[in-house]
Design brief:
The chain has 190 residues and is α+β, with helices and mostly antiparallel strands. The protein folds into two domains: 83 residues, no CATH class; 90 residues, no CATH class. 37% of the residues lie in helices and 17% in strands. A six-stranded antiparallel beta sheet has the order 5-6-7-8-9-10, sandwiched between helices. Strands 1-4 form a two-stranded antiparallel sheet. α2 crosses α5. The protein starts with a helix and ends with a helix.
């Protein structure tokens, strides 16, 4: 992904963030998506940011310190962006209404390219195609273990689940995907 970001900068002769803002953020009207590390996001006064918390031995809520993982700046093309479910949905609607990519390129993006390690799943171009060859085939991306995003093209249905704590605590990220599976059973009566 870092190499892809460098190629984008070379092709556009612009900073990666500026290209993404121009080509994706602005057309999608994603006004709550940021390009900063977690420590910097917490300094933003004009955004509501939820910081994970813990309950101490006395039963009182305490703010949890940021983990070392959250303090590092992930190279932007490989992470470092922060968004919310609403903005992800705006992106989804813009993408699938062909305002970002035309039909030919969108179809190529969600075409099965190679098998993944997960059952009945394939890599597309920047997405994972799950439930391949089934009526509930969907294309999406998990994003740093704390987001489940999938668009089910045949149903024109999008499922987005986010977790503040997922990146720092693998148990929570596991739950995001378990919750997604349970919701899919309800939605699609599997």
């Amino acid at each position: 992904m870092i190499l892809l970001g460098a190629l984008i900068e070379k092709i556009y002769s612009k900073n990666y963030i500026d290209v993404i803002k121009q080509e994706i953020i602005a057309p999608s009207k994603m006004d709550r998506t940021l390009f900063q590390n977690y420590s910097e996001v917490l300094k933003q006064d004009d955004f509501e940011v939820g910081l994970p918390y813990k309950i101490n031995e006395d039963g009182k809520v305490e703010t949890r310190e940021l983990s070392n993982t959250e303090k590092v700046l992930i190279p932007l093309a490989a992470g470092g962006q922060f968004s919310c479910a609403e903005d992800l949905f705006k992106f989804d609607r813009t993408l699938y209404s062909q305002q970002i990519l035309d039909k030919q390129h969108l179809d190529k993006m969600i075409e099965k390219q190679s098998k993944t390690q997960w059952p009945n799943s394939y890599f597309g171009l920047g997405v994972v195609i799950e439930n391949a060859d089934q009526s509930i085939e969907g294309a999406g991306h998990g994003g740093c273990d704390n987001v489940y995003y999938n668009h089910f093209k045949k149903q024109d249905l999008t499922l987005i689940i986010t977790s503040i704590e997922g990146y720092a605590n693998k148990e929570y990220s596991k739950n995001v995907f378990e919750i997604a599976e349970k919701i899919k059973i309800i939605l699609f009566e599997q």
